[in-house]
Write a structure and sequence with these properties.
Elements (H helix, E strand, L loop, with lengths): L3 E2 L9 H12 L16 H17 L7 E6 L2 H13 L5 E6 L2 H10 L4 E7 L21 E4 L1 E2 L4 E2 L10 E4 L16 E5 L10 E6 L16 H6 L9 H17 L1 H22 L3 E3 L10 E6 L5 H10 L2 E2 L10 E4 L6 H18 L7
Parallel strand pairs: 1-13, 3-4, 3-5, 5-8, 8-9
Antiparallel strand pairs: 2-10, 6-7, 9-10, 11-12, 12-14
Helix pairs in contact: 1-6, 2-6, 3-4, 6-7, 7-9, 8-9
């Protein structure tokens, strides 16, 4: 039976990425060597890295605008540390918007380096919305936000304008919608959601903002050293970078970000319409802040959970259980998830309502 993969990350990837990466593991570029055993400094892999970095700038429309692309390791969690190391001046300060678990984790790391101002937070409301009104201090060294909150199902629909560098963690919605990406000075994202296999982290940096902190930065954490080495300061995650290249090629062939955004909107509209219509379910995020990537919802009657779980599992659906910290359900609809899979989930929800909305004695 076909599986409908709603996993939050690592997650679904295009089928052709699996096929091409599997072939590369067996025999890369007809070299009779596996991708996993060639040198990362070989001509063939350097070409992979160069094309992947170029495609990132092309898809984000950041070519010739002073940006550099890095493929690093350590996940977005290491970027929580690298950002203040590279941007917060000695005795400086930073401004953070607290919209979820990962934003909160980034704040904890920044506090190790200096004054960290939380400009607004939705924590007291269990992160069910994006704060709408806040002031960013003009004397901060940078402003940090998280564009999409995977656990709580919220997404920033617009971004504040400020004269200080803006940093955005886009781990769970990068390449999913059209934005003016030049409004950000650093964008970072773990690969394992919309880009490729787990193991590498994309960082896009406006180079002119670097080298101004006055602090000594360990070499492995210094963006400038990674830029100079063209993502080869240490051995890169070869397989993860290659799957990123394949996924970026797939996205370009779909028509780029503008084309995939329309598909993502159709998927989100289909599922949220059913959540709102169906008497058995309720959404958890504020409607105006609902994420197109991660739809979070609950059963109106938690006692029916076992019955609903049995139905969606029987339909070949995988990975919709909510994060362990919040419970409920989370349907992650990343770029590679087809509309067909969302329709299968919606059909199960409709069937569930018909069977159990007026038959409480079956519980």
């Amino acid at each position: 039976m076909k599986k409908h993969n709603y996993s939050a990350g690592p997650c679904i990837l295009p089928q052709e990425v699996f096929e091409k990466s599997a072939q590369a593991i067996r025999n890369f570029n007809n070299s009779d060597l596996s991708l996993l055993e060639i040198s990362h400094r070989s001509k063939d892999f350097v070409a992979v890295m160069d094309e992947a970095r170029a495609l990132v700038l092309e898809l984000l429309n950041l070519e010739a605008k002073g940006y550099q692309v890095l493929f690093l390791q350590g996940g977005a969690s290491l970027e929580f540390l690298m950002v203040p190391y590279n941007l917060m001046k000695v005795n400086g300060k930073a401004a953070y918007l607290d919209t979820g678990t990962w934003a909160n984790n980034a704040i904890k790391e920044a506090k190790l380096f200096g004054e960290t101002t939380i400009v607004a937070s939705s924590k007291e409301q269990n992160y069910n919305h994006i704060p709408a009104e806040y002031t960013i201090p003009i004397d901060a060294d940078y402003f940090h936000c998280t564009s999409n909150n995977t656990i709580f199902g919220t997404q920033m629909k617009s971004f504040p304008k400020t004269n200080i560098p803006t940093v955005c963690d886009m781990s769970s919605d990068i390449f999913s919608r059209v934005l003016d990406f030049s409004q950000f000075d650093i964008i970072y994202a773990g690969a394992q959601k919309n880009m490729g296999a787990a193991g590498t982290t994309l960082v896009v940096i406006k180079e002119e903002i670097l080298g101004k902190t006055g602090r000594t930065i360990p070499s492995i954490l210094d963006y400038e050293k990674h830029i100079k080495a063209e993502s080869m300061y240490n051995t890169p995650a070869v397989f993860a970078v290659y799957t990123c290249l394949l996924t970026l090629q797939w996205l370009k062939n779909q028509g780029g970000i503008a084309a995939i955004e329309k598909i993502n909107e159709a998927k989100a509209n289909l599922l949220y319409s059913e959540i709102d219509r169906n008497s058995m379910f309720k959404g958890t995020a504020a409607m105006e802040d609902r994420s197109n990537m991660n739809a979070t919802f609950l059963l109106e009657n938690p006692e029916l959970q076992e019955l609903f779980d049995s139905m969606w599992k029987k339909a070949g659906i995988s990975g919709i259980t909510g994060h362990r910290s919040v419970g409920g359900y989370r349907a992650s609809m990343y770029n590679a998830l087809p509309l067909e899979s969302v329709q299968v989930l919606v059909d199960v929800m409709k069937e569930f309502e018909v069977l159990y909305s007026k038959n409480s004695e079956l519980v």
